[in-house]
Predict the 3D structure of the following.
Amino acid sequence: MARMLLNDLLKGTKSAMTHKRIIAYYLNNTSSTIPELSKELNLSVPTIAKVIAEMCDDGYIINCGKMDTGKGRSPAIYGLAPESGYFVGVDLMNDGLNLGLMNFKGDLVKIDMGVPYQYRNSQEGLDELCACVTDFIDQLDIAKERILTVGVNIPGRVNPEMGHSFSRFNFDERPLVELMAEKIGCRVYVDNDTRSMTYGEMTKGVVKGEKDVIFVNLSWGIGCGLILNGELYTGKLGFSGELGHFPTFDNELLCHCGKRGCLETEISGMALHRTLLQCVKEGRQTALSEQIMNNEASLTLDDIIEATLKEDLLCIELIEEIGQKLGRYLAGLINLLNPEMVIIGGTLARTGDSVLQPVKSAVRKYSLNMVNRDSAIVLSKLQDKAGVTGACLLARKSLFHFS
């Protein structure tokens, strides 16, 4: 049933486009009566009634009961059938995967966090990624045919319209979505990881109607997602948000992009990790000193975050330095864009006030008072689930969004 809808949508038939408009309406409005839907879509009530009856028979729409008007005959209310189709989200990290399953209405019904996976930019690495996704799907209690799209977050430069990643798994002329779809057996959609996190936060997180938002993904690297006038901003080729590669510092540190002095070299989890190792070698003390001296390769970002939450003074100091530096450069973005909200997300957001308060302090110091006074600076609500939530939601949006 779900695959029939998918095939019709991809063919672009007239009836499928009407179904698509109705589904898109219900994705944004939860439920409605037939007259309300008729008015919104500018189609006659008999036409809408006929299509709704067909979609109820096909299992995409359900009767949600009667509207209590207090007079006369109560009209029926209709909405999406949650189990008529599903979307899988894949959040790709260097050392693991977060995988989720979302129903038609947008409820996350299953999530596996931290699935073991070691990123390698090779055919073998891609094969292993697809095998992990396939294993997740095979273990679900639903038929594979009911999965409409698998959404995959890829760090770096991604063009979602073309289905290409230009930073990872870019070793075939064909789009990455085609390669993955062949191996997984489902339609695939790819997007930048920070943009997915931004959309997750926009749709299911801390954003409550704000139209202009900056999302900062402060993880191993640093990226930025933009919501402008209520829409996710991608740029011409989908490459927007490369905040980490602002040419900022005269430190001669080589960034993974191949250039020196990028923002990411001093404001990122990578920079935090490098600086802590250097501090311990210089004799400074931390609860992690013994682990580092015995085997520095065993030190993870999670170790540093946990030590920070346990009030390790050196870790707190280094986190605060990153927050202060980040706030200074966010002040420039705030002066430029005058957003309603700035969200600090990503792995380092788990340190809470240790990173948030220095950011706020630096923003107040370096941005214009009249510009920043209405810009709320907050932590991500979804935290480490933002990526997988956004991946599912963008997979759904890719099928039912009208530009």
About this structure: The mean pLDDT is 90. The CA atoms of residues 21 and 41 lie 8 Å apart. The radius of gyration is 23 Å. The chain is about 40% helix and 20% strand.
